[in-house]
Amino acid sequence: MQLKPVCISEKLEMFKDQWSPKIIAQVNDHHLKVVKFQGDFVWHKHDNTDEIFLVVSGTMRMDLRDGPVIVNAGELIVIPREVEHKPYAAKECHVLVIEQEGTANTGNAGGSRTAPGDQWI
């Protein structure tokens, strides 16, 4: 087996669509996904897993029921399981998300913003 590094910026250049996470690596039962987004997402939660959002470029606001948290490039935020949240970015933001495999991006909310699962790039 030949191991090689994954270049996050190269992976982000491979697609343009927003709110559709792409898997770039796997560690045990967790996927590392890159996603681009701008504007508002949907309120949702994940009942069985925590999520990590690491901002690669731009700035995002993580709306929480008890108030928003600003996350800048180079920073991350951990969203514990069962905590309702809603990502937002005024300008396009690039994020690395780490979550358990099989986790829907819309969590318990479902709906038209649910991205296809297991899209590797």
Features:
single chain; 121 residues; mainly beta; Jelly Rolls; seven-stranded antiparallel beta sheet
Describe this structure in words.
The model has no long low-confidence stretch (mean pLDDT 95). This protein has a single domain (16-100), classed as Jelly Rolls (Sandwich), CATH 2.60.120. It is built from one helix and seven strands; from the N terminus they run H-E-E-E-E-E-E-E. A hairpin with a 2-residue loop joins strand 4 and strand 5 (67-72). The protein is globular and about 45 Å long. It is mostly beta strands and 121 residues long.
Helices, strands, pairings?
Elements: H1 8-12, E1 22-27, E2 30-40, E3 51-57, E4 59-64, E5 67-72, E6 76-79, E7 85-100
Antiparallel strand pairs: 1-2, 2-7, 3-6, 3-7, 4-5, 4-7
- What is the CATH superfamily? Jelly Rolls
Beta-strand percentage range = over 45%
Largest sheet entry: 7 strands, antiparallel
Mean pLDDT over the residues: 95
Identify the overall geometry: globular
The helix-strand sequence is HEEEEEEE
User: In CATH terms, what is the architecture?
Assistant: Sandwich
Number of H/I helices? 1
Determine the fraction of residues in helical runs and give it as a percent range. Answer: under 10%
